[in-house]
Write a structure and sequence with these properties.
Layout lengths: L4 E2 L2 E2 L5 E5 L5 E6 L5 E5 L4 E6 L27 E2 L21 E2 L14 E8 L2 H6 L4 E9 L5 E9 L7 E7 L2 E3 L6 E4 L5 E4 L5 E4 L5 E2 L4 E5 L5 E6 L4 E8 L3 E6 L1 H5 L13 E15 L4 E12 L9 H9 L4
Antiparallel strand pairs: 1-2, 3-4, 4-5, 5-6, 7-12, 8-9, 9-10, 10-11, 11-23, 12-22, 13-22, 14-17, 14-19, 15-16, 15-18, 18-21, 19-20, 20-23, 21-22
Length: 327
C-alpha cells in the first residue's frame, strides 16, 4: 500500500500506520501515546475500532460482519451519504459506505489543534458509475482524528462540484454503533421531551415522554432539533459515552431487539444486547448545495466514567469542546 505524503511529509508516523486489514483491505491505525487507538478502512471510509487506553473496545462490530465488497460492514461508524435509510431511490443509507475512499494528500485547512497528531484525511469523489444513479458531481472530504485524551472526531466537508449549474440535495448520518454491556441497563440522556419520527410507525411524529430513554423492545426513532450533546450511560460498565455534534440537527436511535436481530444475516441473534446506535444525522430537512457550496458536519465521541456525567463534564474536555464550538 502506498504510504503517500501530506504536503511533502510522510503520512506514516508513530501516530498513523497504514496496513492491511481483513481480507487484504487497506486500513489505517491511529494511535495516541496513552494507548488509545482507532482503525479506519478505506473501504467505506469506515471506522471499525475505537479503543481506550486500557484496550477496551468502545464500538460494536458484529462477529458476523462481512469485510468483502460490495457488502456493507455491520458496525463501527458507517457513513450514510447521499441518502439516509430508504428516504430516496438509492440503496439504503446511500453508496458512500460501499465505495473505496482514497487518502487526501492535500486537504483544505481544518481547525488547527497542535496536540492532535493521530489523524487521517480521506476523500471520495463521484465516479461515472455513481453519476448514472445519482447525477451529481461532488467532493466528500473526511478527517478522522484521535485526540490525546482518546476522543474520536469525524469532520465531513461535502462540496457540490457540478459543472451544469445544478444544485443537489442529500441526507446524512454518522451511523455510530456503540458497544454496551447490556442494552437493558443503558439509558440515553439529552433527548427528553423532543419530537421524533417513529420508523416503526410509518414515520409518524410523536413527542418523547418521561425522563431518559431506556430500552425494553425494538427502537428506531429520528429525534428532531436535538441538542449538540447527547449522553449514553452504560450502567453495568459505569461508563458514559458523550456525543457532541455540529451541523447535524437530528439524532437517530436504533436497536433491533431480539426478533429483528434474527432477521439480519450479518448480526448474531443475541448481539443486539451489546450494541446501540445513536447517530448524529440530518434527516428531516435535507441539505441543499448550489455549485461551489460546501457543507460541514462534525461529531466528537468521548468515553468517561459515569461520575463525570452527573451534570459536570471534565473541565479540560469541556474547554476543548468550547474551542471547537460544540459545547
Amino acid at each position: 500500500m502506498s504510504v503517500g505524503t501530506r504536503r511533502g511529509m510522510s503520512l506514516e508516523t508513530k501516530y498513523v500506520e497504514l496496513c492491511k486489514g481483513i481480507n487484504g483491505l487497506d486500513k489505517i491505525i491511529l494511535r495516541e501515546v496513552r494507548g488509545c487507538s482507532a482503525e479506519v478502512y478505506l473501504y467505506g471510509g469506515h471506522v471499525t475500532s475505537w479503543k481506550n487506553e486500557h484496550g477496551e473496545e468502545l464500538l460494536f462490530v458484529s462477529s458476523k460482519a462481512i469485510f468483502k465488497p460490495p457488502k456493507t460492514i455491520r458496525g463501527g461508524i458507517p457513513i450514510c451519504f447521499p441518502q439516509f435509510s430508504n428516504l430516496g431511490s438509492l440503496e439504503p443509507h446511500g453508496f458512500a459506505r460501499t465505495r473505496f475512499w482514497t487518502i487526501d494528500n492535500d486537504p483544505p485547512p481544518f481547525p488547527i489543534n497542535s496536540s492532535n497528531k493521530a489523524f487521517i484525511d480521506l476523500i471520495l469523489k463521484h465516479s461515472e458509475e455513481d453519476v448514472k444513479i445519482w447525477p451529481h458531481r461532488y467532493e466528500f472530504r473526511l478527517r478522522i482524528t484521535l485526540g490525546p485524551g482518546g476522543d474520536l472526531m469525524l469532520t465531513s466537508r461535502i462540496r457540490n462540484t457540478n459543472t451544469d449549474g445544478k444544485s443537489f440535495t442529500f441526507t446524512f448520518a454518522y451511523h455510530t454503533y456503540f458497544h454496551v454491556t447490556d442494552i437493558s441497563e443503558v439509558r440515553v440522556e439529552g433527548l427528553e421531551t423532543l419530537d421524533y419520527l417513529d420508523n416503526l410507525k410509518n414515520r409518524e411524529r410523536f413527542t418523547e415522554q418521561g425522563d431518559a430513554i431506556v430500552f425494553e423492545s425494538e427502537v428506531d426513532k429520528v429525534y428532531l432539533s436535538t441538542p449538540t450533546k447527547i449522553a449514553i450511560l452504560d450502567h453495568e460498565r459505569k461508563r458514559t459515552f458523550e456525543l457532541r455534534k455540529d451541523g447535524l440537527p437530528d439524532a437517530v436511535v436504533w436497536n433491533p431487539w431480539d426478533k429483528k436481530a434474527k432477521t439480519i444475516p450479518d448480526l448474531g441473534d443475541d448481539e443486539y444486547k451489546h450494541m446501540l446506535c445513536v447517530e448524529a444525522a440530518c434527516v428531516e430537512k435535507p441539505i441543499t448545495l448550489k455549485p461551489g457550496e460546501e457543507w460541514r458536519g462534525r461529531q466528537e465521541l468521548s468515553a468517561v466514567p459515569s461520575s463525570y456525567c452527573s451534570g459536570q463534564l471534565d473541565p479540560q474536555r469541556a474547554f476543548l469542546s468550547d474551542k471547537f464550538g460544540l459545547a
